[in-house]
C-alpha cells in the first residue's frame, strides 16, 4: 500500500471509529489512542483528569515508541479492521 492509499485507509478507519456509538474495550481504545498519536505526530500529553487513565495512556505511548507515522497508520487500520471483523 502506498502512502496515498494508506492515508485514505487511515482516514476511513478514523471516521468509522468516530461514527461508532457502542463502547469499545479498553485495550482497543488504548492501542488506537497510541497509534493515532504517533500517526498524526500529536505531541500533547495525555489529558485525563484521572491519573490512572493517564498512566495507561502513557504506557500505550511507550509501547508504540519508535514506530514511524506510516507504521502507526497501518497498525491503526489493522486494529480497526480486526475489531469490526470480530464483532460480526
Detail the poorly predicted runs: none
CATH class: Mainly Alpha
CATH topology-level name:
Acyl-CoA Binding Protein
Q: Strand count, sense and closure of the main sheet? A: none
Explain how this protein is built.
The chain has one domain (3-87): Up-down Bundle (Acyl-CoA Binding Protein), CATH 1.20.80. The chain has 88 residues and is mainly alpha-helical. Helix 2 packs antiparallel against helix 4 (69-87). The model has no long low-confidence stretch (mean pLDDT 94). The longest helix is centred in the C-terminal third of the chain and has 19 residues, at 69-87. It has helices spanning 3-19, 26-39, 51-63, 69-87. 72% of the residues lie in helices and 0% in strands.
Summarize this, please?
With about 90 residues, this protein is mainly α. About 70% of the residues lie in helices and about 0% in strands.
Topology diagram in text:
Elements (H helix, E strand, L loop, with lengths): L2 H17 L6 H14 L11 H13 L5 H19 L1
Give short descriptive properties of this protein.
single chain, 88 residues, mainly alpha, Acyl-CoA Binding Protein, 72% helix, globular
Amino acid at each position: 500500500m502506498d502512502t496515498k492509499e494508506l492515508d485514505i485507509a487511515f482516514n476511513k478507519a478514523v471516521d468509522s471509529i468516530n461514527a461508532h456509538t457502542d463502547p469499545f474495550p479498553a485495550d482497543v481504545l488504548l492501542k488506537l489512542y497510541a497509534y493515532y498519536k504517533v500517526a498524526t505526530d500529536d505531541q500533547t500529553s495525555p489529558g485525563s483528569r484521572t491519573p490512572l487513565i493517564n498512566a495507561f495512556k502513557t504506557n500505550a505511548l511507550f509501547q508504540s515508541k519508535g514506530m514511524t507515522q506510516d507504521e502507526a497508520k497501518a497498525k491503526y487500520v489493522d486494529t480497526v479492521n480486526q475489531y469490526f471483523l470480530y464483532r460480526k
